[in-house]
Amino acid sequence: MQTAEQLSEIEHFVYRLFSDDITGHDYYHMRRVARLAKYIAEKEDANPFICETAAWLHDVGDEKLFSDPHVVIQEIRDLLDRLSLTKQQIEKIKQAMQDVSFRKGKTPVSLEGKIVQDADRLDAIGAIGIARAFSYGGAKERHLYHEELDNHTIQHFYEKLLRIRDKLHTATAKTIAKERHHIMQQFLEQFYQEWNFPSIENRG
Ligand code: ADP
Ligand code: NI
């Protein structure tokens, strides 16, 4: 089986699993992460096919997304077997997936795992990251922002999103993160300006 055909099978598998997800883990999240991972792998001299495949599958088996992750994990095994990949390819893909999926927040052991984790984190920042945060906050019925209560979505920027830039592993991801980080800072500045409008100097 050709590489393009293998990737297309994986994409279809992911599309079927995630097409109706609205928790921020939809098919397009997987596609963005797969494309980012492939790009980073090419720049970092890692294996683009392994990174792209593991990225497509990085959220499959996540306990918070699947009531019975074991069923899906078995489906992945069957899928990888069907694709006539080499044993070594399957091992590497599994390693990278496990690095990201089951060791959330921890540093992956393999370079491929690091790349997929970087790609996943990049999709949580920038304009898309802002949109995902408010979408998540909405789904959890959280305030956009609150002056007395915590647990609002703006708080998530300080707790997680603005810290991502310094947690990335690869130089390529760090470069991509610069603009995305800057956009979040600008967004927050504008947000407070509008929140406090008219500011003292603009009050008639
Ligand atoms: P992943 O499973 O892709 O590693 P998460 O499940 O932690 O990531 O988050 C998925 C998306 O939801 C991300 O864009 C993240 O920023 C957002 N998110 C997670 N927790 C919160 C929160 N408390 N408030 C707002 N957004 C959140
Ligand atoms: Ni993800």
Automatic annotation (TrEMBL):
<keyword id="KW-0378">Hydrolase</keyword>
<dbReference type="InterPro" id="IPR006674">
    <property type="entry name" value="HD_domain"/>
</dbReference>
<protein>
    <submittedName>
        <fullName>HD domain-containing protein</fullName>
    </submittedName>
</protein>
<dbReference type="InterPro" id="IPR003607">
    <property type="entry name" value="HD/PDEase_dom"/>
</dbReference>
<dbReference type="Pfam" id="PF01966">
    <property type="entry name" value="HD"/>
</dbReference>
<feature type="domain" description="HD">
    <location>
        <begin position="26"/>
        <end position="125"/>
    </location>
</feature>
<dbReference type="GO" id="GO:0016787">
    <property type="term" value="F:hydrolase activity"/>
</dbReference>
